[in-house]
Amino acid sequence: MNRAGARKIVRLGREQRVADILGAAREVFCEKGYEAAGVAEIAARLGIVEGTIYKYFDTKRDLLLKVLEHWYEEMFGDYERDLAGVAGARPRLRLLVWRHLRTTRDYPLLCRLMFREVRGEQDYRGSDLHAKNRRYTQYLVQVIEEGVAAGEFRGDIPPVLLRDLVYGGIEHHTWNYICGRGGLDIDRIADQITAVVCEGITLQPMAGQIGREAQRLSRIVDRMERNLSRQARPTK
Amino acid sequence: MNRAGARKIVRLGREQRVADILGAAREVFCEKGYEAAGVAEIAARLGIVEGTIYKYFDTKRDLLLKVLEHWYEEMFGDYERDLAGVAGARPRLRLLVWRHLRTTRDYPLLCRLMFREVRGEQDYRGSDLHAKNRRYTQYLVQVIEEGVAAGEFRGDIPPVLLRDLVYGGIEHHTWNYICGRGGLDIDRIADQITAVVCEGITLQPMAGQIGREAQRLSRIVDRMERNLSRQARPTK
DNA sequence: TTGCGTTAGTGAGTATAACTCACTAAATTA
DNA sequence: TAATTTAGTGAGTTATACTCACTAACGCAA
After folding, report:
1. Structural domain that includes position A33
2. Range name among A131-135, B40-44, B69-73, B206-210 with the lowest pLDDT average
3. A78 inside domain
4. Which of A187, B9, B106, B216 stands the most exposed, by the fewest C-beta atoms within 10 Å?
5. Which nucleotide shows the minimum CA-to-C1' distance to residue B52?
6. Per-residue model confidence (pLDDT) at position B203
7. Residues B142 and B209 in one domain
8. What is the pLDDT of residue B208?
């Protein structure tokens, strides 16, 4: 029996309650991080008790994974559409890099949860969330493979290595921003990463030399041809 | 007072006890991971009780950081010496990539602790361990800067971005191995990463065309010279 | 050898938070 | 209106990091 002044018990449908819990959990996880977030606090924000949450989610961790899955659903959608509008392996690669940076910029707290609390734990491998992440990063692998098939990219670097360099590199490089320190110029960084991956950092003096040599030869040939035609003219 | 059959209390000096605890903690952390490792178990392996460990270390987490600092001390040392024996920006870059891969291959469990439990937590930033890690990754930044100064590398990519691409990429790419799945061909991967960072993945049809044009011009010049000398001979 | 101060080591106890479960009461149906 | 279902409760259990008042081993001086 409720004491005097105790709140009234509100019964919601399963679907609505699950949605509410996911929303409150997302808030609390983002504000305090996974460890510091208490299941009791998530419950308190909805005016319910801890036990109710365990009616719908097996563990606190299960709740975290479901929150992130929900987020992935939100994000996906327009990936195919965006890619379809861009032609050429290099521009398509840059689009993927840029979109990933934009997601990082717009959802740093959720990225933080994903990187710090989820990826790397035993239960991530094989989870639904893992499957969604694979599908996400697979776009880049596909773009690389298309580039190789079209003769634009070399074929001797495994696409999964490039995927790991890009996503691992972005994760490291944006870590300070994700932790709330500093800004993030996603256009500049997307350009730089695309440039490194596509052209590398080596300056190639040879290319310039070959070009200059070709010009030198061209001038010589031109001169010779003029000479020959001058010599040849009198014989006509 | 010890009960009948209870073990005898052994008193060690502070230094020896600290070393023993660090050793046992490293074992247990590696075997079970940070969360699953119990301070009581670490104590049990040394025949002491939990309280004794808290005499020498503030928290379980402090103990973890000290274990990893100890490991860093072991590793450093010969970095300068190895680098000193290699000339040229590209070979030096490859050495750093290769050495990092070798460390990952040789100490996957400690790497796992470093990546999963330490880096990314609040207390890491500004810690002694953080300082050691910075010093470690700084070698790569320095090699890049030397390469730029020597005219071997382009100067428009921030060295820290390259550092993050390399170390973040390696971390992602070796994650399966670190988790005990599959092998790690460090020579092949070092070659591939160095190749991507230095030359990129774009095939440059222009370079081939310039080369072919130069060859064509060379043949023409040769033919012309033969013609000229044939024409010139009779005049002698 | 004996007495004494220092400190390594003890182990019972505390605090916290995830998780459980027997029960209550609100909604729905017969 | 009675019966049934199930959303919600909240006190209790468990596990473990961490504390603290106390004990006993060692070194040193007389």
Report:
1. 14-57
2. B206-210
3. yes
4. B9
5. C9
6. 81
7. no
8. 58
Residue that wins the pLDDT comparison between B2 and B101? B101
Is residue A214 located within the same domain as residue A144? no
Which residues have CB atoms below 7 Å from chain D, the nucleic strand?
Answer: A 2, 6, 9-14, 17, 43, 47-52, 54-55; B 1-2, 8-11, 37-40, 50-51, 54, 58-61
Asked if residue A194 and residue A167 are part of one domain, the reply reads: yes
A4 has a pLDDT exceeding 50? no
pLDDT in tens, A13-72: 889 999 999 999 999 999 999 999 999 999 999 999 999 999 999 999 999 999 999 999
CA–CA distance, A35 with A64 (Å, rounded to integer):
11
- For residue A231, the model assigns a pLDDT of 66
* Residue A8 placed within a domain: no
In a domain, A5, yes or no: no
B170 and B211 housed in the same domain: no
Among A59, A61, A62, A73, which Cα is nearest to A133's? A73
Distance CA B181, CA B172 (A): 13
A41 phi-psi bin (left φ>0, alpha ψ -120 to 50, beta other): alpha
Residues B96 and B176 both lie in one domain:
yes
Q: Are residues A24 and A90 in the same domain?
A: no
Burial class (CB in 10 A: 0-12, 13-18, 19+), B7: exposed
| pLDDT score, position A168 | 98
Between CA A182 and CA A174 the distance in angstroms is 10
Q: What residue spans of chain A are helical by DSSP H? A: 14-32, 39-45, 50-56, 60-75, 79-84, 89-106, 108-112, 128-149, 159-173, 175-178, 186-199, 205-232
CATH at residue A25: 1.10.10.60
**Residues B80, B194: one domain?**
yes
CATH of the domain at B122: 1.10.357.10
Q: pLDDT tens digit string along B9-40?
A: 888 888 899 999 999 999 999 999 999 999 99
Least confident residue range of A77-86, A204-213, B199-208, B213-222: A204-213
Q: Please indicate, yes or no, whether residues A114 and A215 belong to a single structural domain of this protein.
A: no
Task: Specify whether the CB–CB gap between B102 and B42 falls below 8 A.
Answer: no
Q: Is residue A62 part of a domain?
A: no
- Asked if A159 and A144 count as a contact pair (C-beta separation under 8 A), the reply is yes
Q: Distance, in angstroms, between B219 CA and closest chain A CA? A: 10
Q: How far is the CA of A56 from the C1' of D4 (A)?
A: 22
- Which of these, B125, B159, B165, lies nearest to B144 by C-alpha position? B159
